[in-house]
Amino acid sequence: MPYLNFLIVSEEPAFFNIGVYSANSRRFGYRQFDVVTQDDDGYVSWECKYTNKKVSIGTVSEEEEQALNSEFGISRTGFISKSGFTDEVLHRKPGYLHSLAELYDEKLDL
Questions:
Q1: How far apart are CA 80 and CA 101, in angstroms?
Q2: Is 110 a domain residue?
Q3: pLDDT tens per residue, the chain (110 residues)?
Q4: What is the domain extent for residue 9?
Q5: Cα–Cα dist 1/30, whole Å
Q6: Contacts of 51 (CB under 8 A, 6+ apart)
Q7: Could you give the angle at the alpha carbon of 21 between the alpha carbons of 16 and 25, nearest 5°?
Q8: Is residue 68 domain-resident?
Q9: Do the beta carbons of residue 49 and residue 55 sit within 8 Å?
């Protein structure tokens, strides 16, 4: 049975629900998404990487496949990384990539 924990956030945010998601099923196996947000266009899975290595295209592809093929109906993915992203990731996927420092920037556009 999936576990979903959502709460309402402040007035007119970039999203109106935020939570975590994990499930273990025979069909999909174990799935865990660090953060899931919901906006007018659906659900976004956010993967958070707190490592000293830049996030690679392999990691992005693996996380996207897991999220987009989940039973939950996630339509988009985003990534937050302490150490940034490889050039290949930045070239391929310009949106929904944020550094840890950006989370503290008042101008962050989700």
A1: 10
A2: no
A3: 333 333 344 445 566 778 887 777 777 677 788 888 888 888 888 999 999 999 999 999 999 988 888 877 888 899 999 999 999 999 987 678 888 777 776 555 55
A4: 3-104
A5: 11
A6: 81, 82, 83
A7: 145
A8: yes
A9: yes
d(CA 68, CA 27): 15
Handedness of CA 73, 19, 46, 34 (dihedral sign): negative
Q: How many CA atoms lie within 13 A of 87 on its CB side?
A: 0
**CA 39 – CA 69 distance, rounded (Å):** 19
**Total tally of structural domains belonging to the chain:** 1
Q: Domain with 71 in it: what CATH number?
A: 3.40.1350.10
In a domain, 11, yes or no: yes
pTM, rounded to two decimals: 0.74
The answer to whether residue 91 is domain-embedded is: yes
**How many angstroms separate the CA atoms of 90 and 5, rounded?**
31
Q: What letter does residue 21 receive in the DSSP assignment?
A: E
